[in-house]
Design brief:
37% helix; Jelly Rolls; Phage tail protein beta-alpha-beta fold; 8 helices; 13-stranded mixed beta sheet; 315 residues; alpha+beta; single chain; 18 strands
Length: 315
């Protein structure tokens, strides 16, 4: 007699197989699949098992195709096999993307992700990451936002960080990666990192506590290594505590940074106000302390302007 646990597993495998077939045929919306998968960790495990088995079948099928004798109509054969290979590759890449686990934070939210190798990823506000580990590689994709990475030692599997700007390989250590409109800042707090882009590659190492922290910066001009200012290092430590620190920045810059954490955005109405310099330490989840500082220090008027904006005006 089958046990209840076995019946549940068989049902999950059947559901996962149906989802994979529908996705492969283009008959299912990825959003609907992700909602099904994310509702129960057992579903994600079942889907990974089914997809892995399907990938093995693909490999066996391709090996069998290579053993077949060459047909006389070479043009037809070349076109047919090229089409089959293209469809197989597209299906595999689609399944590979769906096999990646995903973690997202909303605006103002922070979250810590524990990875299976002992590494950890701290996600800052409005951040999205995907990850997938196998026997050969550890891979994490930063789609948007900012992460603090603590990478565990693994001599056999490199840790790879993918972004639209380039690929970074990280040794064991601590790092901070932030996507910006113009590129990527990868701060090496401890350890070694190498980064490669279409325009070049470079690397940096921080091997002792006394070593200066380094930033691997990708911009429109290319990729470079620069010393990370202490204020930047402190800013990284601050956001991990739920704080934001200003040390003499113009108010325009301070507001732009604070708005990353706010659903109701601050808007400066007077250009002269934007030139004011601001210092202090504030909580990212309590903008009232920041607004109180603007009132008392600069005498600004704080005006609510509907559900999405707060205006900053001079008196």
């Amino acid at each position: 007699m089958a046990k209840t646990g076995d019946q549940d597993r068989d049902a999950l495998i059947a559901q996962a197989s149906e989802w994979l077939a529908r996705l492969d045929a283009g008959r299912a919306a990825p959003e609907a699949f992700e909602a099904w998968r994310d509702a129960d960790p057992r579903r994600a495990a079942a889907f990974a098992e089914v997809a892995a088995a399907w990938s093995k079948l693909d490999a066996l099928r391709d090996a069998e195709l290579r053993k077949r004798p060459v047909m006389t109509r070479r043009a037809w054969l070349g076109g047919g096999l090229a089409l089959a290979a293209g469809l197989s590759a597209a299906a595999y890449l689609g399944r590979d993307h769906l096999l990646r686990a995903r973690t997202i934070t909303g605006v103002g939210e922070r979250r810590t992700l524990a990875l299976p190798d002992g590494s950890s990823v701290e996600l800052n506000t409005d951040t999205e990451v995907l990850w997938r580990f196998d026997r050969q590689r550890r891979r994490l994709w930063l789609e948007r936002g900012e992460v603090a990475l603590t990478i565990a030692q693994d001599a056999l599997r490199p840790f790879e960080l993918f972004t639209q700007q380039g690929l970074a390989r990280l040794a064991s250590g601590q790092f901070n990666a932030r996507l910006r409109p113009a590129g990527l800042d990868l701060i090496v707090l401890a350890g070694r990192a190498a980064i490669r882009t279409a325009s070049g590659e470079t690397q940096a190492a921080v091997e002792a506590a006394a070593d200066a922290r380094q930033t691997l910066a990708i911009t429109a001009a290319g990729v470079a290594v620069v010393a990370a200012p202490e204020a930047e290092v402190q800013a990284v430590q601050a956001w991990r505590r739920g704080e934001i620190v200003f040390e003499g920045q113009r108010l325009t810059e301070a507001v732009e940074e604070y708005n990353r954490y706010l659903t109701r955005k601050l808007v400066i109405e007077d250009p002269k106000v934007g030139a004011l310099r601001l210092g202090g330490r504030f909580l990212t989840d309590n903008p009232e302390t920041f607004l109180d500082a603007l009132r008392t220090t600069f005498g600004l008027r704080i005006i609510s302007d509907g559900p999405s904006r707060i205006l900053l005006k001079s008196r």
